[in-house]
Design a protein that fits this description.
The chain has 321 residues and is of the alpha/beta class. Helix content is 50%, strand content 8%. Helix 11 runs antiparallel to helix 12. This is Tetratricopeptide repeat protein.
Length: 321
């Protein structure tokens, strides 16, 4: 499954849907909606009454909508449950909105019309940020492993773009007050994330470097540092010019590295890895070492558990030996 970068699109027209008669306070002081869905503190069953409010919550942090149908595609409801369960692992980075199109056909019609589709495919996954679709809609069944990869990628992009907002839980998580106190952003990363939000990439790099120096095993800090360095290297770079330079000079390590960085930021992770693997295959000596070392740094930015990183490491080993 290819993951797309965040992108601006038009807001969804909700005028055809019912409006709540009175404002509904979010349960537990958390994100708007009805009761928490599927046992998750960060998932809500969406209906016509709360749909607009759920979308408005995307001004705080991304909202993941899953359209499923127990009658048309029973397996799609399992996918919705998987999304609800997985978003709960991100401490408010995402809110899942589950839309049963059998029970809420008008919501499906509104989304289909806004997406210029004759009929809404089921299942369908959409991610909203600031009330607008943030990535290309993903139709069809998505495995739990692929969903986990998608959320990891989105979380990394949020960090890289300085988007640090989090949803509040809809209900107290299991474990009582102690678990509730544990939920929420880790303050260790706040200086780096705040710097990214302010556009101060150099400071973000320095803050992440401090974390890595103090604890080299901190995977989140390592990924944050790698991504911040990519942003630092690509500041002000024109993508078209970079691609033209790389095409004209296929063995220029600097030119190929730049396009690989830009591809990674754009969500084209496999293309980024493949470019550098081929560069390793074609080069030798110090140039080969530079290409290999840079590719390894990109693996860290994506995350060592990502299936594409595992494939990329296999391809790199093949190119080296």
């Amino acid at each position: 499954m290819t993951q797309q970068p965040f992108m601006g699109r038009g807001a969804i027209d909700l005028s055809a849907l019912k409006r709540p008669a009175t404002p509904q306070a979010p349960p537990g002081g958390g994100s708007p909606g009805a009761a928490a869905a599927a046992g998750s503190s960060y998932a809500v069953n969406v209906d016509e009454q709360n749909f607009q409010t759920v979308l408005q919550a995307s001004t705080t942090a991304p909202v993941v909508l899953v359209f499923h149908s127990p009658s048309q595609a029973p397996e799609s409801s399992q996918m919705a449950d998987d999304v609800a369960d997985l978003v709960g692992q991100y401490d408010g980075r995402f809110l899942a909105g589950l839309v049963d199109v059998d029970a809420q056909p008008q919501i499906g019609q509104v989304i289909a019309q806004a997406s210029q589709l004759q009929q809404l495919p089921v299942p369908l996954l959409m991610v909203f940020l600031d009330g607008r679709p943030a990535i290309q809609p993903i139709p069809g069944l998505v495995s739990r492993e692929e969903l986990s990869t998608l959320f990891n990628q989105l979380g990394q992009q949020l960090t890289a773009q300085g988007i640090t907002g989090r949803h509040q839980p809809l209900a107290a998580p299991p474990g009582g007050d102690e678990a509730a106190e544990d939920a929420g952003p880790d303050p260790r990363y706040a200086p780096a994330q705040d710097a990214l939000a302010a556009g101060d990439i150099d400071t973000a790099v320095a803050e992440y470097q401090k974390l890595v120096d103090s604890n080299p095993a901190d995977a989140e800090a390592t990924a944050g540092l790698a991504m911040a360095k990519i942003l630092q290297r690509t500041q002000g770079v024109d993508l078209s010019a970079a691609r033209a330079e790389a095409a004209a000079n296929p063995d220029d390590v600097d030119a190929q590295i730049m396009v690989a960085d830009l591809d990674l930021l754009g969500g084209h992770v496999e293309d980024s890895f493949a470019r550098l693997v081929e560069l390793v295959r074609r080069t030798s000596g110090k140039e080969r070492d530079r290409a290999r070392d840079h590719l390894v740094s990109l693996f860290a930015a994506v995350g060592n558990e990502d299936p594409r990183v595992l494939k990329g490491r296999q391809a790199l080993a093949s190119a080296l030996f």
